[in-house]
Amino acid sequence: xxxxxxxxxxxxxxxxxxxxxxxxxxxxxxxxxxxxxxxxxxxxxxxxxxxxxxxxxxxxxxxxxxxxxxxxxxxxxxxxxxxxxxxxxxxxxxxxxxxxxxxxxxxxxxxxxxxxxxxxxxxxxxxxxxxxxxxxxxxxxxxxxxxxxxxxxxxxxxxxxxxxxxxxxxxxxxxxxxxxxxxxxxxxxxxxxxxxxxxxxxxxxxxxxxxxxxxxxxxxxxxxxxxxxxxxxxxxxxxxxxxxxxxxxxxxxxxxxxxxxxxxxxxxxxxxxxxxxxxxxxxxxxxxxxxxxxxxxxxxxxxxxxxxxxxxxxxxx
Length: 317
Ligand SMILES: [Zn+2]
Prior knowledge:
Bound molecules: zinc ion
CATH architecture: Alpha-Beta Barrel
Structural class: alpha/beta
Distance between the termini: 74 Å
Number of helices: 12
Number of strands: 7
Strand content: 5-15%
């Protein structure tokens, strides 16, 4: 009878929704480093503001709650500190969260543990004030270059320091060399090469698709399922212009966007991840290494073609 079939279809809809909520679909958290801006060429305070507005507009359009990791030294542009603070405010007003990426972007390969610890504390002053004004937490730390330590002892000591100061480490599982594409893009913008910019944006999208496939393979081989992934990109001109397309691509690939705290609730993020040393790969690679598991792939392919050639010409100095 119609009434019964109506009830049954409601029931199946409810099941479909709960299966999705339980993780039936693929999930990804978006994290954006080097807020307010990473640029290979000169960038004005006005452009920095517009860049952040574009990132936030794309995130809001797709209902994605991102975490922006701040380098406070980049906010201290003489005569323009208020604009920098307004950018932090804009992130929080848009419903995003801010994290600490340290003052000066010091990595745990080139800098001493003591210097990096000092940079964590020096780099939280304006962000903490902004977060408190919005009743928002300041709880995540993203290691510059995702370098978590030269040795296990150093990694553990630093993580204890971070925990003491209320920080959780923000891992990442998906990267697609966005800084390589972004550097080329910055130079082509400076040269007003619009067809070149478009070509880089197209290559960048293709590289995202190829890279995501690799990290899905790693997750399947290591965990036997799709972990909630964590994407790492940077606050660059490239991403300001293409984040809408990136998020559309991820949706096409079957992903829904989840906040970082939801992704981190997955038990995979409790797995041991060894100290990175100099190179900071995906946490999927770190987990595999800690378990002595051999995977068929260990990260995204290298950028090829036009972008790789341009990168050699424009960015390797
Ligand atoms: Zn960074």
